[in-house]
Structures are given as C-alpha cells and as structure tokens.
Fold this protein.
Amino acid sequence: MQFFANFKMNHTRASTTAYIEQLESELSGVAIESVSVFPPATALQKGSNRVVVGAQNGYFEQSGAYTGEIGLEQLQEFEIDTILIGHSERREIFGESQEFIAKKYAYYKEQGFHIVYCIGEPLSLREQGEDALFEYLYSQFDGIDTNYEKLTIAYEPIWAIGTGVSATVADIELVHKRLKEKFDAPLLYGGSVKVDSIEQIAAIESVDGVLVGSASLNAKEFAALIKRGLGV
Ligand code: PEP
C-alpha cells in the first residue's frame, strides 16, 4: 500500500521539514511500501530516509522565461524526481488543458520522473451514467503514455475532493475495475480519505494506495491514517 500526501497551498519550508521528521519518527518500525509528500514549491527539499518529497507542479522546461513557474533546474536542486500531474485543481482553477498536461507529462517522463497522474470527473458527469463517465475519464488520458513504467494513476472524483464526502466502496470499485482492465500502472484513490475511512478503502482489491489532501496536513494524523491503512 502506497501513501501520498498533497499539501496543496499549505505548510511552509520550516513546517514541512518538521513534518517530515515527525512522520519518520511516527513510522519508525512500520513496514511500508512507500510514502511521499508533495509540499508547496517554496518548501521543496530533499526527502528523508523513508519519506519521498515530490513536486505538486513543474513546467516542461529546464529553466527560462516562464514567470511564476518552476522547472527541472529548481526540482533537481533538491533531487526531486516525483511529480503530480493533472490534478483537478490545476485543470479547473488554473485552466490546464489536456494538451498542456500532456506536454508536462511527456517532458517529465523524458526526465525519468515518477509521475502521479490524476484523473477524475465532476458530479454532473457521474450523474450522466457510466458511458458518459468513462468517456470523460478516458479523455483525460489523451496524449498520455500509459505504458510508462514510472506512472502511478490517481483516480480522484472531483466531487469527493476536499468535501469531506469520500466516494463509496462501490463508486471506487466501479471506476478502478475498468481502469485496472485497461492500464497496468498502480492505481490510487483520492478524495476525502480520512483516518476513519482508510480501512475500508485500503481493503478494496484494486486500490494500490491513496492520495490524501486535508487528512495529511498533520504528520501525527497522517501517520495514524497510514498505520490504519496497513492494519498495524
Ligand atoms: C486531493 O486534492 O488530492 C485530495 C485527495 O484532497 P482531500 O483528501 O482533501 O479530498
């Protein structure tokens, strides 16, 4: 079981450093496949013994005239080789198109990054039935090489992100089953995963891990969620 923490626009450099130290200590002695945190760009730093630090975003260039962005050079300074691409907040709030996302994906694939690639539908799509739902979800793979060996897919229904309402086991199974038939990559679920729901979610066969937002912001609570997910 893999665990990923998306801090979004929360935490500072100092609090991220303290978080990683605390997570390391909370998880000492726990056998865990992988745990990664994605802090904001200003808090990027080298990972620790067991905690991988990844980037929430990166432009598809080494460096250059791209105001407000960070690129490969800034990530390499901290030996970052894991990146989140396609998150619904980037798609919806920052207007990232599928074409733009595919360029990012191709670039960071070329650089050998581990890519956590997010897809997910709004509630209106869910309500239109399965054909519309899967047509929408599959369109989020346009231009994406899903055979890339360092790809992890995260299914994150938008209606479950930050709402406190996680998808039900049946909701997750419906989508994960179809994605598993189509793609070989490890598959995460994300969307209001909490310490109280992790056991149920981790027990779903097609769930290889979770991407956690709000319930990851406190290291002690995230460690508790991880331990519950692992059943230790
Ligand atoms: C996310 O945005 O990736 C996420 C899963 O957030 P939350 O856990 O807060 O729903």
